């Protein structure tokens, strides 16, 4: 077993460490954008933490595509938190999402959004991907989702999927885009 540890560490470094080493450094104004990067990372983690890195990137690209699409809000956090909200019963000045009525199910499922300590490594990968989504390196490589702005797990069949164009399946997620406007 001890002989396998260096091999496992090398493979882990190549798979996950390469995400960081192969990228340009973040611009100096990074602190200003940390809230947006955190929103992207949270969305990637909660939507695709059980997927491959490619599946996590695909979820990040959907968020990016929505920000670029005029039919959606203009920032990552607004895109991710899009949906109806209501005043909290504790403090009427605080708006909370209406359960099961938002764009990304984790955001309004009523469960805690605290990242478990045992998943810190997975969240670190999500944060690396989110940083690259935010600063643009993935766009230089091309969007393998072909502009997808929607996706769902392969074990559900939402009604909206009938009126969208399927672009790709990555892991357990099926991705779609709008039909072209005439």
Q: Helix tally? A: 6
Distance between the termini: 61 Å
CATH superfamily of the domain at 31-81 and 117-177: Cell wall hydrolase SleB, domain 1
Average the pLDDT over all residues and give the rounded result.
Answer: 81
Protein structure class: alpha+beta
Q: Can you give the helix content as a percent range?
A: 40-55%
Could you please describe the fold and organization of this structure?
This protein has 182 residues and is α+β, with helices and mostly antiparallel strands. The chain has a domain at 31-81 and 117-177: Cell wall hydrolase SleB, domain 1 (Arc Repressor Mutant, subunit A), CATH 1.10.10.2520. The protein has 6 helices and 5 strands. The chain has helices spanning 4-21, 34-48, 53-68, 76-80, 120-135, 137-141; strands at 85-87, 95-97, 150-153, 165-170, 173-177. Helix 2 packs across helix 3 (53-68) and helix 3 packs parallel to helix 5. The longest helix has 18 residues, at 4-21. It is globular, with a radius of gyration of 18 Å. The termini are far apart.
